[in-house]
Amino acid sequence: MRKAGELLANLVIINYDTPRFVAIVGQEGESTSIRLAAQHFYAPTSDAKGKVTFAPMRFAITVNAGSSKPTSRAARIAEANTLKQMGVVDDLFVLQAYRVSHAQDVKRRTDLQRQQMAQIAQAEKQAASQQRPKSPKGPT
């Protein structure tokens, strides 16, 4: 596996000699891209006579087989639900795990409905406390 990776990296160094964008997987597993300049993997060096030339960069390859994150949709959803129950993540994270369209708008509407319900409950509580008969005070 290591040798195959080194061969591939060397081919990239040799053949990626024009500017381009390359698709990569980001830290959180999202699809993203990076821009590679012409001769991106070459560094200026000077030879014995002091003449500046460009030489391929040295590199190291680290391979981690498998994923440390859930890869299936069902596993991501289960993880989001568990984290929500633990109180670690918010509603928006869960909506995004479910891939709900317009998750921001859905969360905004849900938050507004919760605020309205809390205001109604507070108003009912105040109305109930005002309607209670006052208990007669006895002699002190």
Describe the structure.
The mean pLDDT is 83. The chain is built from 4 helices and 4 strands. The chain is 46% helix and 16% strand. It has 140 residues and is α+β, with helices and mostly antiparallel strands. The chain has 2 domains: 55 residues, no CATH class; 58 residues, no CATH class. The strands form 2 sheets. Strands 1-2 form a two-stranded antiparallel ribbon. Strands 3-4 form a two-stranded antiparallel ribbon. The chain is elongated and about 110 Å long. The longest helix is centred in the C-terminal third of the chain and has 29 residues. The termini are far apart.
N-C termini distance: 90 Å
Structural shape: elongated
Summed up, the helix count is 4
Integer average pLDDT = 83
- Side by side, the strands of the main sheet go 1-2
Brief synopsis:
Helices cover 46% and strands 16% of the residues. With 140 residues, it is an alpha+beta fold.
Provide keyphrases for this structure.
alpha+beta; 2 domains; 4 helices; 4 strands
Give the SSE map:
Elements: H1 2-15, E1 20-25, E2 31-36, E3 42-46, E4 52-56, H2 73-86, H3 91-97, H4 103-131
Antiparallel strand pairs: 1-2, 3-4
Helix pairs in contact: 2-3, 3-4
